[in-house]
């Protein structure tokens, strides 16, 4: 199975962004990690193994992007702000 790793610097986030690509051709699928997860965890979990035959025969490509959970609402420091904003969101 073809696998490529890419990394580049994000000026907006002031950190490296990373992704894994599986496959050489086929329908492109953008894969987001679970909450708090990282881009490489998808390989350890069931997803890549489940569709490996489709990746190998060129029907599917997976683009597993990294998350920004560390800079988003999942971050513990943001939770008080989120709680205070929730009643006004509706």
Can you offer a commentary on this structure?
The protein has 90 residues and is α+β, with helices and mostly antiparallel strands. The protein is 23% helix and 30% strand. It has helices at residues 41-44, 46-50, 52-56, 79-85, and strands spanning 3-10, 15-22, 27-31, 60-65. The protein has a 4-stranded mixed β-sheet. Strand 1 (3-10) and strand 2 form a beta hairpin. The relative contact order is 0.21. The mean pLDDT is 77.
- Segments where pLDDT lies below 50 for 5+ residues? none
- Pattern of helices and strands: EEEHHHEH
For the largest beta-sheet, the strand count, sense and barrel status come to: 4 strands, mixed
SS-based class: alpha+beta
Question: Could you say which overall geometry the principal axes of the C-alpha atoms support?
Answer: elongated
Strand order of the largest sheet: 1-2-4-3
